[in-house]
Amino acid sequence: MHSDKIRKKFLSFFKERDHKIVESSSLIPEDGSVLFTTAGMQQFKPFYVKGDSPYGKRACSSQKSFRTSDIEEVGDQDHLTFFEMLGNFSFGDYFKKESIKWAREFLIDELNFDEEKLVYTYFEGNDEIPEDETAKNILLDSGIKEDRIYSLGRDENFWGPTGTEGPCGPTVEIHYVLKEEGCGPGCDPSCDCDKFIEIWNLVFNQFYMDSSGNLEPLKHQGIDTGMGLERLAMIVQKKPHVFETDLFVPLKEKINELIEGEASQRSKRIIADHVKGSVFLISEGVRPSNTDRGYILRRLLRRAMRHSKLLELPGNSLEKIAEEVFNIYDGIYLKKDDRPQVFSVIKEERGKFEKALDKGLKEFEKMVEENFLDGKKAFHLYSTYGFPLEMIKELCEERDIEFTEEGFEKAKKEHKEASRKGVEEKFGGLSEDPENEELKLHTATHLLHESLRKVLGSHVKQEGSDINPERLRFDFSHPKPMTEEEIRKVEELVNEKIEENLEKKVEEMPYDEAIEKGALTFFEKKKYPDPVKVYSFLNSEGNPFSKELCGGPHVENTGHLGRFEIKKEKSSSKGVRRIKAVLK
Ligand code: SER
Q: What is the pLDDT of residue 523?
């Protein structure tokens, strides 16, 4: 059964039971406290508290999800970053009995699972919360034999909340028996010996946990279930692991075609998972950067690049594999029209890292002669060649080289302290921290100024500027409101320049010379000291994108700014427009 059919079957099964089919929400959640959507219930979180929702009291979905918790495990049989979660939800409506009944019906009657291969776990209770006897009795009353029911603790059978507070509760998990032999007499579904694989998590939301960890009973009890489509497809399609299902086979085949021979399974899986994850993140607007979501994407792409280098794949292989991701999900979550944009982001990141990867790997070989990589050297790979920490750890693991993360963190801290001191010295005792938001926004203001001139024309001139830790405000001469298209172009250009990692250069020179060299000014000549300071931001060829007379201070390079977003564009006074923008 094709995965598309499984997905449809699930949704229509619950539709027949009066659930509203709700579209997957974005991978970038509205809840700012989490980086990515990690579960189907995330978009429904408020409805468990209110007991009501715009979709009625029952919903079901197939949700795009992205988890970073297992990123380092990717490469084994069943860990993934991007996956789909099938779920049914009740907001103050049905509860444990129906959710267990329907889960069994779906697996056994709809998908023809062998009943004998299913085992169940429920919450055994602890000092705070009693054993979930209701769930246990429902399982027994359904005719499940006692030896297929296990009680487990809080780690296994209590779920939530997501973020710092929210609905949560005991669970019943349904596991599938992959092989009859376990690892010994105490083997149960919490064991990772591969006897069992968890397929469906039924969460009984009956508590609300506040930000201090206190539990209160929820007024409206609810249901939140989650079942990974990839694992389900693996069992239905009788495959030994998720990478053999139709959700991955086209990627694997493309990789095989590019290699022309046998190669490490692990590398192939890492490439397949990471390219898929990258395609989804890029198509949702994430761009590689050195912070937050952008850094996760960068890590995925850089790790995929290293593994494709290990397999000696040709240069543009990641884009070719990405094309297959579009083929799998076209019309489901992805649109083929987005391909050129996604491919160009991948290509650009390849362009940035390819040479550094080669040089860094050579450097690594020299560093590890003694089977030990010290923290300072590891930090050098990170800061000079852009190797993510996880890549350094992975390299060391593969080669059985000793490496301690503490040493790396210490070197990182020392480096930060040294650059902070450097900034202090340069700016006469001002204690600016290079991570300071105002400093970043100041640099972003320069990039914005130049981008406005590039997009709107050279009549644009700074008329005013104000920065606080949350946002920048920039007034400039321009006779009419900017169009949506112009705003988007300016944003894109600023972000492009952030990504290019432009380096700061400060020079002192006479005012007239600065003007001759094309530096932008704000005040009239007499208000500037002479000589003046000129701040430029240079690309890797040493060409300036922006050049302005300014007192500073600024960040050392633009790569750390994050993502630039224009929040507002409006009139400030006649012939002067005002932009408010943030860095995310
Ligand atoms: N929220 C639960 C999970 O993510 C069930 O959907 O496992």
A: 67
Question: Is residue 528 predicted with pLDDT exceeding 50?
Answer: yes
Separation CA 523–CA 549 (nearest Å) = 9
Nearest CA to ligand 1 atom 6: 226
Do 156 and 279 have their domain in common? no
Q: What is the CATH number of the domain that holds 71?
A: 3.30.930.10
3-state secondary structure at position 85: strand
pLDDT at 428: 42
Q: How confident is the model at residue 372 (pLDDT cuts 50, 70, 90)?
A: confident
Q: Do 234 and 102 belong together in one domain?
A: yes
Atom 4 in ligand 1: which residue has the minimum CA distance?
39
pLDDT at residue 488 in the model? 92
Task: List, in sequence order, every beta strand (DSSP E) within 252-380.
Answer: 372-373
Across the range 177-188, mean pLDDT stands at 89
Taking Cα atoms as reference points, which of 299, 471, 484 lies closest to residue 391? 299
Cβ atoms of 510 and 487 within 8 Å: the answer is no
Within a domain: 392: no
* In-domain check, residue 402: no
Same domain, 61 and 94: yes
Whole-number Å distance, alpha carbon 299 to ligand 1 midpoint, is 25
- HEC string for 10-43: HHHHHHCCCCEECCCCCCCCCCCCCCCCCCHHHH
Please give the single-letter amino acid code of residue 81. T
Of the candidates 564, 556, 566, which has an alpha carbon nearest to the alpha carbon of residue 584? 564
pLDDT digits (tens, 9 = 90+) for 388-440: 999 999 999 998 999 888 999 999 888 877 766 655 554 444 474 556 788 89
Given 183, 215, 244, the domain boundary residue is: 244
From the CB of residue 270, how many other CB atoms can be counted at a distance below 10 Å? 23
Q: Is the dihedral of CA 101, 104, 105, 106 positive or negative?
A: positive
Distance 41 CA to ligand 1 centre (A): 7
Return d(Cα 304, Cα 267) in angstroms, integer: 8
65: closest CA among 276, 207, 270?
276
Tokens at 391, concatenated: 């890549």
The answer to whether the pTM exceeds 0.90 is no
Is the distance from CB of 416 to CB of 434 less than 8 angstroms? yes
By alpha-carbon position, which residue is closest to atom 3 of ligand 1?
226
CB of 166 within 6 A of ligand 1: the answer is no
Residue 334 belongs to some domain of the structure:
yes
Query: What's the pLDDT at 186?
Result: 83
Q: Which residue among 244, 263, 295 closes a domain?
A: 244
pLDDT of residue 283: 95
Print the domain residue range for 112: 3-244
CATH number, domain of 579, equals: 3.30.980.10
Domain count within the chain: 3
Can you name the residues that pair with 59 across neighbouring β-strands? Answer: 20, 89
Q: How far is the CA of 167 from the centre of ligand 1 (A)?
A: 12
